Amino acid sequence: MPFPRQEPEVTAPSSPAARIPPCSGRAVVLEAGDELIIIDPQGEQVSDLTAFSRGDTAEYLSSGRSIDYASKLFLSSGDLLYSNRSNPMFSIIEDTCGRHDFTLTPCSKKMFEMLYGEEEGRPGCEGNLAEALAPYGIGIDRIPTAFNVFMNVAFDEAGKVSVLPPLSKPGDFIRLRAEMPLIAAMTACSAGQSNNFSYKPIDFRVVRGGADVTASALA
After folding, report:
1. Backbone angles phi, psi at 193, to 5 degrees
2. 126 — alpha (psi -120 to 50), left (phi > 0) or beta?
3. How many CB atoms lie within 10 A of CB 199?
4. H/E/C letters for each residue in the chain?
5. Which phi and psi angles does 135 have, rounded to 5°?
6. φ and ψ of 20, to 5 deg
7. Is the CB of residue 203 less than 8 Å from the CB of residue 19?
8. If we measure between CA atoms, which residue out of 39, 38, 41, 4 comes closest to residue 21?
9. Rounded distance between C-alpha atoms, residue 32 and residue 210, angstroms
10. pTM assigned to the model
């Protein structure tokens, strides 16, 4: 099965959204109060999201802090996503899917070799996030556990982890408000198991003060 990879590009001017092609990533620059809307245009497609403080990129989006303070594994509308320094980074203000993961690390070249048996693994979300964040001096070893938008991960009573097809339908979205100035990066995930073994795009918009500023936010 081919694994399409193209350079991210903004969609036609008639659409306010930007599109991340399959198996690639994109970074955006956000101001405090900006809304980042991540959209699954075709359904059953995961997007790995991470973020770093623009004031100090040593401060990053933290799975452990966010889950600890929420006291639950599955985060949705009304929940906060925290940094490693316990500062709010995002508020989830609207969520039409309701199921995301914040436990599994981004897919990677080595993961494809170990879990999928690929002789020469693709860069995966880890590599695509690192490529998108490279202009900000953020390398691959600094990519943390991402907020895996639309990813459907289940845990049984014995603690066994299962990655199931996403519950997202075409047009489902999550709307997050930046609580500090951020550099954020997203992907259209490259892992077959996470996406029901299909590779589709992810759309996104950035809204500031009610106005669409997607084009100017693109990093």
Report:
1. -60, -35
2. alpha
3. 19
4. CCCCCCCCEECCCCCCCEEECCCEEEEEEECCCCEEEEEECCCCCCEEEEEEECCCCCCEECHHHHHHHHCCCCCCCCCEEEECCCCEEEEEEEECCCCCECCCCCCCHHHHHHHCCCCCCCCHHHHHHHHHHHHHCCCHHHCCCCEEECCEEEECCCCCEEEECCCCCCCEEEEEEECCCEEEEEEECCCCHHHCCCCCCEEEEEEECCEECHHHHEC
5. -60, -15
6. -100, 110
7. yes
8. 4
9. 14
10. 0.91
Q: What are the pLDDT digits (tens) for 171-206?
A: 999 999 999 999 999 999 999 888 888 999 999 999
Structure tokens at 97: 């899917």
Q: What phi and psi, each to the nearest 5 degrees, are found at residue 217?
A: -85, -15
Burial label for 129, CB within 10 Å (0-12, 13-18, 19+), is buried
Report pLDDT digits (tens) over 100-156: 999 999 999 888 888 878 777 688 999 999 999 999 999 999 999 999 999 999 999
Residue 118 dihedral angles phi and psi, to the nearest 5°: -75, 130
CA-nearest of 138, 155, 150, 152 to 187 is: 150
List of residues 6+ apart from 80 with CB closer than 8 A: 66, 69, 70, 88, 90, 91, 92, 179
Other C-beta atoms lying within 10 Å of the C-beta of residue 201: 21
Measured between alpha carbons, how far is 160 from 66 in angstroms, rounded to an integer? 22
One-letter amino acid for residue 208 of the chain: R
